[in-house]
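Reviewer 2 asked us to include a model.

Predict the structure of this chain.
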Amino acid sequence: MMKWTTLLSCIATGFIFAGCGGGEELATSAATDPNVIAYPLETCLVADSKLGSMGKPHAFVHEGREIKFCCEGCNDDFKADTAKYIKKFDDAVAAKKAAEAKPADAEKTG
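Predicted model (structure tokens):
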């Protein structure tokens, strides 16, 4: 009986620790994966709070976009109106690209 208890305890501990750090790897790979659009903002997509103001940001990939929240609590709002937040993300990407292209255009005409 003691062997079974020890074995089950070890297996349970393995499952607990297997889930640790998974999101961190996802966020890191999203920043380096050329098929994923990098997160364009310095604020939470949902709450508009500065990323890092509530601890480590929650990051994941959704439909080829790297999404970041100030906390995991924003996930429910994102799920409730995903289209709204994807539009906000896409608008921010477009604005960032336009801002980056503007100085190059000025050099060509100047």
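Residues 2-109 form one domain. The helical segments are 2-18, 22-32, 74-80, 82-109. We have added this to the supplementary material.
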